[in-house]
Design a protein that fits this description.
Strand order of the largest sheet: 1-2-4-3-5-8-6-7
Bound molecules: zinc ion
Number of domains: 1
Oligomer: single chain
Distance between the termini: 22 Å
Order of helices and strands: EEEHEHHEEHEHEH
CATH architecture: 3-Layer(aba) Sandwich
Helix content: 25-40%
Number of helices: 6
Number of strands: 8
Strand content: 15-25%
């Protein structure tokens, strides 16, 4: 069974849960992976797909050490809002070189980088685990976007879901997760954008891509 622990609490005190899976001995030296969903509370499909993935990992461990946070922005998820309970867009709030306090309406990054407990909890998890394969699940676009050293992984995942891979999401993203850990940090950062589908269909389309990312048979 995986370890199951809390990485932090949301603004409203909800417990942000994480599952930790240990791989077979031969895979222990590979860099670890972190997958997380619903950093935007109005994008529940990623969380659904990760919950399905967890069920499969219970039956067969991943091919590298893996941490899964099915839903980061639980307050937003509960209220159906993109932003957290302080109306901050967590995916603009990371301490990247391009973090900026100027913003478009709806994309408030906060007055200081990583001032929000949800972003802090995720950053702390990455610091503590030293995982470098970092996969964020979003909606509603249909693409496998990469930052940093994620190109090869993105191309491989895109072969499995047919979404196409790209390094440019098409608009500036100051303070984004990909800016901090990909552009600045050089990690394999993937932003998997899942189109608005029925839950089961979203999982069907992305199952193999997510298993591929964890070195599992697809
Ligand atoms: Zn999003």
């Amino acid at each position: 069974m995986p370890d199951h622990f809390e990485i932090g609490k949301t603004v409203l005190g909800r417990s942000i849960e994480c599952l930790h899976f240990t791989p077979p001995d031969y895979a222990k030296e590979k860099p670890g992976a972190i997958l997380f969903g619903a950093i935007h509370g109005d994008e529940p499909l990623g969380g659904y797909c990760l919950a399905e993935l967890v069920k499969e990992l219970l039956a067969m461990p991943p091919g590298r050490e893996t941490w899964i946070v099915p839903a980061l922005n639980l307050d937003g998820l509960a209220g159906g809002s993109k932003n957290n309970a302080n109306d901050i867009d967590l995916n603009r709030s990371f301490a990247s070189a391009n973090f900026s306090t100027s913003y478009k309406p709806g994309y408030f990054p906060g007055e200081v980088a990583e001032g929000e407990p949800e972003a802090k909890a995720l950053s702390q998890l990455i610091d503590e685990t030293c995982a470098t394969r970092l996969i964020a699940l979003h909606s509603p676009f249909r693409t496998v976007n990469w930052d940093g050293s994620g190109e090869e992984l993105a191309l491989g995942m895109a072969e499995h879901n047919g979404y196409g891979a790209s390094s440019d999401i098409g608009y500036p993203t100051p303070g984004s997760f990909g800016s901090k850990y990909g552009v600045d940090g050089g990690c394999e950062v993937i932003t998997l954008e899942i189109p608005l589908l029925e839950q089961d269909e979203a999982w069907r389309q992305n199952r193999a891509a997510l298993r591929f990312a964890l070195d599992l048979p697809v």
